[in-house]
Amino acid sequence: MRAAVVATVILAASGLVPRAALAQKDVTAEEFEAKLGYTNGAIVLKGNIATLDVPTTFRFIGADASKRLLEQAWGNPPGSASYVLGMLFPTSISPLTEEGWGVVISFDEDGHVDDKGAESIDYSKLLKQMQDATEEDNKERVKAGGKPAHLIGWAEPPSYNAQTHKMYWAKELAFGDNDHHTLNYNVRVLGRRGVLVLNAVANMDQLPAIKADMQKVLTFVEFNAGHRYADFIASTDRKAAYGIAGLVAGAVAMKAGFFKVLLAALLAAKKLILIGLAAFAAFFKKLFGGKKGELATVPASGGGGSVTPPPTQSFTPKK
Asked: Mind giving me the DSSP string for 35-91?
């Protein structure tokens, strides 16, 4: 499973645009947003793997525009958004406002995920495992200079549709001493060679609106012919090393049937997505035992040391 999604994704769209990010580009928020190239209708993702039938209530931007938004406006490290295929936004809200949020789209080509036994998964038990693992992992996060993360619980329990091969779930998280809890809403579409990943993060008080919007997103995302779940060829196609439970938990390491649960290493910072954090590379290597191939999906982000969140003061466009 792509580490940028499993263990190092930070999807946040719940705060103010960092002043420094756009100020360095010497543009107003209006000028920046006008160049994002919003569109809707039938959107074919790179490689013709899937099509989004985006209604007028949503807006889509492609990979290049997503990279500019994530790195220049939301303050992510250069090159950290290289895996992103595009982003979705509700038409009614600008991503450069305090209440703005977006959905980051990517594809994990880890193989065909076997959905056998999905209906019998005890998600309460899985949640407890994830919570315990998160608290244990906090020791390493703090050593790496980050803030402790706390998995409060399900904001929306996992739900898998065996007919459409789509699922969703949402988590409530808290970071450090931040009183405002974070909502991490996840949508997954299972395909022949991997999983289409759609992630959104905002404040917990945005749950009703985001829940409604993400349910709509579920309906207009489909794999194209040749990439669908039913197109899987057992004799030649690769199978994923995890099943539905592992998909939800973010688990990739399986030893004697035991999932080593990893939770997204999130920071409580405004408008911040951190993808492939170098500061946590050693931490992941330690967890995985440094075996060949197990860190192959950790993107190089350059540099190291602790992670410093960008400024969180409001952005005032120049006149």
From this structure: TS--B-EEEEPGGG-EEEEE-TTEEEEEHHHHHHIIIIIS-PPTTTTTT--EEEEET
Which structural domain range is residue 126 located in?
3-283
User: What's the structural domain count of the chain?
Assistant: 1
Q: Region 161-170: what's the mean pLDDT?
A: 97
Which residue did the predictor score with more confidence, 59 or 258?
59
SS3 content of the chain, % helix, strand, coil (to 5): 30, 25, 45
Q: Is residue 233 part of a domain?
A: yes
Residue 309 pLDDT > 60, yes or no? Answer: no
pTM here is: 0.76
Structure tokens at 153: 């619980």
For 150-168, b where at least 16 C-beta lie within 10 A, e where not — what string? bbeebbbebebeeeebbbb
Q: What is the pLDDT of residue 294?
A: 29
